[in-house]
Amino acid sequence: MLDDVSRRARLALDPVGIDRVDVDEALLLGEPAGLEVRVLEGAVDLADLGAGRAEDLRDRLAAETRIGALDVALVVTLLAYAIVSGLPLGDTLPFALVLLVASVPAALPATFTLAQALGAQEPAHRGVLVTRLSAIEEAAAMDVLEIRQIPVLQDNYVYLIREPRQGAVAVVDPSVAPPVAAMLRELGWTLTHILNTHHHWDHTGGNFALKAATGCVVVGPRADAERIPGLDIEVGEGDFLPFGETQAQVFDVPGHTRGHIAYWFADAHALFCGDTLFSLGCGRLFEGTPRQMWESLSKLRRLPDETRIYCGHEYTQANARFALTVEADNARLVARSAEIDRLRAAGKRTVPSTMGEERATNPFLRADQPSVARAVGLPPSDPVAVFAAVRARKDKF
Ligand SMILES: [Zn+2]
Questions:
Q1: Which of 70, 144, 154, 186 fits a disulfide with 267 by CB distance 3.0 to 4.6 angstroms?
Q2: Rounded to the nearest whole angstrom, what is the distance from the C-alpha of residue 235 to the centroid of ligand 1?
């Protein structure tokens, strides 16, 4: 895990892309900002380049890089952040020193605050700083909760999560047991919890087998207790589920099913929302009304921008095609859709996205926007009706 954190921090601190990273794009695109440093000019993605070409590019860009005082501010902020967050200083310090040396002979101001550093620089530099700091925060979040994604069945995602200090391990919505058991063995993790978001078989099908094999406890919605196989702990709106040294806040989010819940790990910036909110979509209304679903989504929409959305299915590309029929003029949606096509063509996952991205591009979170109301020919004053119309249109899409 520490290797993972330091690798991410190292990637974030690599001086590639400086002067080329646009702040909005960096925050918008793909993985939470900073995990991949993207060189937007020519749409080059370093993660996709072979090692040789990446090295060339790195050298070329590094030669053009001059940030100076900003790096001093970054180093100070970074070290302070690392100390406060308990990140391994042994990994952080060498890169901080490299940055420091690279910033000579820039003038060294007496003091810097984060706000000054973020506020005073020109946009491109600010983007780099934000990107780097996001990566450090991301590494800190992964320090709170390690997350592994297991694709199963046709398009389901099962998640394994581990709180590293006490070793609590949960599987979220295990549709099937064997791939989960195999991944647990591979990681050397011992399952302590099953977290179910709702009763559908493709989210609970592995409950009995995993519980029998490990003796873990099953956590699920109080409102649907009788339909969750092997349920031990019932939770609902406002509950906090302790998980090692962290905890999950539970939200009731009915609509897809009447008892659907979501788990929000605030410290880890992670939301497990099953089939309520998808990347660029939302679940079908099998047991709920449009008003219930709109209220559920509105609840989730209030979570911070950096919240990563770990949803139950890889539906993003089809969702993007539909979303474009609603908001063809939404520039962020158009850009995101192109990025999704690129990722899928390369066989990559599009989940998790972030709440910031979803709020800006997911039509089902935007039923109170005039552009979305216009698309379905309704006044913007009634978001429930707009949401219902968009959902109905998607059902036939
Ligand atoms: Zn479902």
A1: 144
A2: 18
Q: Kindly state whether residues 381 and 317 are assigned to the same domain.
A: yes
Task: List Cα–Cα distances, 251 to 157, 185, 216, 296, 311, in angstroms.
Answer: 20, 31, 22, 8, 15
Query: Do the beta carbons of residue 285 and residue 395 sit within 8 Å?
Result: no
CA of 121 from ligand 1 middle (Å) equals 46
What is the number of structural domains in the chain?
Answer: 2
Please name the helix (run of DSSP H) or strand (run of DSSP E) that holds residue 246, with its range, or none: strand 246-252
Q: Which residues 6+ apart lie within 8 Å of 306 measured at CB?
A: 32, 134, 137, 269, 354, 355, 356
Active-site residue list: 198, 200, 202-203, 256, 275, 313
State in Å: Cα 286 to ligand 1 middle.
9
Which of 115, 139, 163 lies at the terminal end of a domain, its last residue?
A: 139
Do both 195 and 311 map to the same domain?
yes
Identify the pLDDT of residue 113: 30
Taking the whole predicted model, whether its pTM rises above 0.90 is answered as no
Domain-ending residue, one of 139, 173, 189:
139
DSSP 94: H
Q: Do 252 and 150 sit in the same domain of this protein?
A: yes
Q: What's the gap in Å between 275 CA and the centre of ligand 1?
A: 5
Give the CATH number for residue 237: 3.60.15.10
The torsion of the CA quartet 104, 110, 113, 117, rounded to 10 degrees, works out to -40
Centre of ligand 1 to C-alpha 312, Å, is 8
Q: What is the pLDDT of residues 150-195, one digit of tens each?
A: 999 989 999 999 999 999 999 999 999 999 999 999 999 999 999 9
Contacts of 115 (CB under 8 A, 6+ apart): none
Residues 228 and 206 reside in one and the same domain: yes
- At residue 391, the pLDDT reads 97
Q: What is the pLDDT of residue 283?
A: 97
Residues 162 and 72 in one domain: no
Host domain of residue 287: 145-396
| Dist. CA 212 → ligand 1 center (Å) | 24
- Asked whether residue 389 falls in the same domain as residue 362, the answer is yes
**Ligand 1 center to 237 CA (angstroms):** 19
Residues of the chain falling short of pLDDT 70 = 1-76, 78, 87-142
Query: What's the confidence (pLDDT) of residue 3?
Result: 37
